[in-house]
Amino acid sequence: MTTPLVAHLTDFVDELRRRGIVVGPSALIDAASAMEVLDLLERSRLREGLATTLLVDHAHRGVFDRVFDLWFPVGAGMRTVTEDLPRDEDGNLDVEAVRDALAEMLADDAAAGDGRLEQAIAMIVDELGRYGSTKGEAFSAYQAISAVNPQTLIAKIAAAMAGGDGARPGTEPLYRQAARQKATDLRAAIERETQRRMADRNGRDKVGAYAVPPLPENVNFLSAGAKEQVEIRKTIEPLARLLAAKLETRRRRAHRGAVDVRKTLRASMSTGGVPIELSHRKPRPGRPELIVICDVSGSVAGFSQFTLRLVYALRQQFSKVRVFAFVDTVDEVTDFFDHGEEDFGAAMHHMISTARISTRDGHSDYGNMLAGFVADHVETLTHRGALLVLGDARNNYHDAHADALAELVERARHAYWLNPEAKEHWGTGDSVATDYAEVIDMFECRNATQLGTVIADLLPV
């Protein structure tokens, strides 16, 4: 490899590291070795070769691909176009005819191999995605995708793949599944071409600041869309396995009990009353109980669901897990997850729609919840258990009842509050987080990375 190419690869890896992807020195060496034998003009093979050597977690592939497209673009400037797409009488692209042509190209694998599909995408971005901005000419992936609307091409692609006469009996679902993937690939290709053109205009760093998404484990719980929530869910099981191993190791290492003062003083008689060696009580290993109280209102429900998934993945670390949910009224919902649907999301939906968690105005009321928990469920807390409260503490200007929270904290052996809002927003508007933080240890928990760190450090052994 030439020196400039080595430097470019090193800079690319440094960018991956800045995005949170862990790449060790040996992986960088493997990537350099792969580039020596790969044809650098075959971008798809180069992409796969670098992904194989540099990535450990497949969930990071989306971020890797976006960074790769910025550092190893297909080219610079306008592409050379040898074939034109259908146009109307005024010389503009005929959108309906273009969509039909795209369906035929997507159904034909040869179109991708000979470059026709790439040229078509370049023309679509150039003519349907172009717009004027205050800084001059620019391109919008959203504008181009809206014009093409890839999701509506699925039926046409499936029909074209089946030969135009409809799918053979029993095979239509396979065609539609393949067609859905090709429509998704078309959307991604338009986004890549738009990103390439904007990087030519504004520079790689500026485009990367908004075009490259965060890693799934760093996505903010409260702002995650449906697609991002799917990616976050994929991080829960691996995270749970790591935490379970960590908790089990901590439990094994905690082989000594508390200092036995009486035995220590008795043993010190042989050394003139100087306690040279400490005597310890026999340890009493046991798995603590865990009580979870979670806000399931509005966008906070997503954070609560992710945390409950993690807790239930770790439930073997506890003798018992009991879950209470609320919007303005608290109700025990343990049975929904212990004996409910296999699909955790379905169990969550069933719980929200049937449990007695909202009996007032339907807005979060932490004060009423805390007072109700003290009145109806306080006996569930013992000095051998831990309390975990999940919520943003936005109380809609109701009475906070911090005294009720103080009673719960007093009864539990450990008590923690996980808040999905940024700490600088605590106490603003209708938030009573700062009031509760004076009573209970409250921790910022905005993404899966923070969630895993907090759970690992706080859960008792």
Automatic annotation (TrEMBL):
Q: Which Pfam families match?
A: VWA_CoxE
Q: Which PANTHER family match?
A: BLL5662 PROTEIN-RELATED (PTHR39338), BLR6139 PROTEIN (PTHR39338:SF5)
Q: What is this protein called?
A: VWA domain-containing protein
Q: Which organism is it from?
A: Gordonia amicalis
